Amino acid sequence: MTPSTPPLLFDVSALRQRRRRAERIGAATFLRDRVSEDLAERLSAVVRNFPNAVDLGAPGALAGLQAARVGELTPVDLLEAPGDALGLAPDSFDLALSVLALHLVNDLPGVMAQVRRALKPDGLFLAALLGGDTLTELRQSFAAAEAEVEGGVSPRVAPFADLRDLGALLQRAGFALPVADVDRIVVRYDNAFVLMQDLRRMAATNVLIERRKSFSRRSTLLRMAHIYAERFADADGRIRATFDVVWLSGWAPHESQQKPLKPGSAQMRLADAIKPKT
What pTM value is reported for the model? Predict the structure, then answer.
């Protein structure tokens, strides 16, 4: 049976254009910088050195990680990987890292499987990507405004995978000791238009293949901003924007790693363990 081709959700050409525009108008890197610092802190808790590492994402996102016991860091720009083919040799890296990039690949299961094969035994995969309820306020406000003003809804914000599904992908890719957790970051803005300007400077505006190609109506944008302020503003009038950063980690299997107990190997029955003492 021939494996099915994953659906194409994201327009890679449009994403390149968004990145060039962000560099031209002045990139907003506050979210990426925050997540990069968190990644370095998480990595510092792993007491070992990583001589050969690969950085999967945008260029420069992980500059300065040598202080976290990382040796040679090989960058792989996911936008330059045709069909999400990373071209990584098997068993070639001790560490694979990614900061806020993997949520925009079309074949995330395939990419994670490639990363797993590229890691040496007992190699570590550590990644942060947007997921969960990221930009849920903007999504809801646009949907309500379009339905009211235009009588229909078009895709405005990319779909984000939830924590459970991403954790399952770690297991599916063959990682040992998989862990998935989420860090919710709430950023406040004066209004929805300031948020949208930040998203442009983050190269994080709509790159869905099914997006509307024409310009948005002014009336729709104004109504969206009004709904956003009505539903998602704090007492001081500033609006909230949610970014759910999902952290994924897993290890390439190795015989030295902890293994779960085999079924039936327990030395005490659960009923006996929880029986109240007399």
Answer: 0.86
